[in-house]
Amino acid sequence: MKKAVFTIEEYNGVNNAGPKAKNDIDFFLKKENFEIIHQYFNVHSKVKKFKDAYWTIPHLFENNAFDELFFQYPTYSSFLMKRLIKKMREKTKKLFFIIHDVESLRLFQNDKIYWKGERALFNATDGLIVHNYKMKQWLRENGVTVPMVELGIFDYDNPQNVNQSSEFERTVCFAGNLAKSNFLDKVSLQDGKLEVFGSHPSKHYLNGVSYRGQMSPDELPKKLTQNFGLVWDGDQLDTCSGKFGNYMRYNNPHKVSLYLSSGQPVIIWKKAALAEFILKNNVGIAVDSLENLDKILDKVTEKQYQLMKHNTVQLATSLRNGQFILQAVKDIENY
């Protein structure tokens, strides 16, 4: 049986090696004898998009057909996506999407016209691998009729050693795009410490919060030696706010996999879709607010932390082996 993973990489004017989550899925499925196919599109030029739509896409997969084609969705052009799905359907017996983002839940919330188009793309497949139950439930309630299976959590190819240290010192880290993480300006700690990694740091961090620089996804795990990794979004401490905060109700943030695969339990918003996974596997804590982060850390006992740490180190092995994507692929194939 001939199987392939197909990924679009959009040119954005910088040296872009491709998103970590998509590259990791390539990595794990290649071990299962999937053919890995990448196609570069420049979605920021109308002329080049027109060329891609009427020249590149019609010539994709020439002299090549597949029994199963797994497309890493989305590509950030609805215009090209409509052309792509027609070509992919011609060249494969079974077409599945591995969902990285549902844009109708992320950037185009409450946009009924956009959702109509995105739903049509989903329903043109033979099945979807979605993040979790909350995402699957929303899609089903809003008209997606094809089979769907839950990934559970994103795997993470982590080249660094798992941090085995389990000494509880009330330390937390946050890694991400700091420009959209304005809540960090409001965090103040007396006993605990919050170390921040990423681009565009603020100049206004308060007591107990320190900036530690920016580094590649492969290098960053070396620095994740704190007790917890923080998963939060928006500009408020009492809730995850804004479009990206609301999106946490449905998606699996990739930074959770970064933390866990590094051996680091997490602190996550209680209303996040992934909070259920964290609590079920006892690899962190779920909270309503960060207004009293010191008190949250004070309530964690040494015994509780040791168990969370043990469970996290065990889970890190599964994430580093691609267990979740491999199982999800089997599940959608056998649906």
From TrEMBL:
Domain Glucosyltransferase 3-like C-terminal: from-to ranges: 172-331
InterPro entries, per database record: Gtf3_C, Gtf3_N
Source taxon at top rank: Bacteria
Keywords of the record: Transferase
Residues in Glucosyltransferase 3-like N-terminal domain copies: 12-153
UniProt KW Transferase keyword: yes
SUPFAM superfamilies per the UniProt record, alphabetical: UDP-Glycosyltransferase/glycogen phosphorylase
Protein name (database record): Sugar transferase
Organism in which the protein naturally occurs: Limosilactobacillus vaginalis
Lineage: Bacteria, Bacillati, Bacillota, Bacilli, Lactobacillales
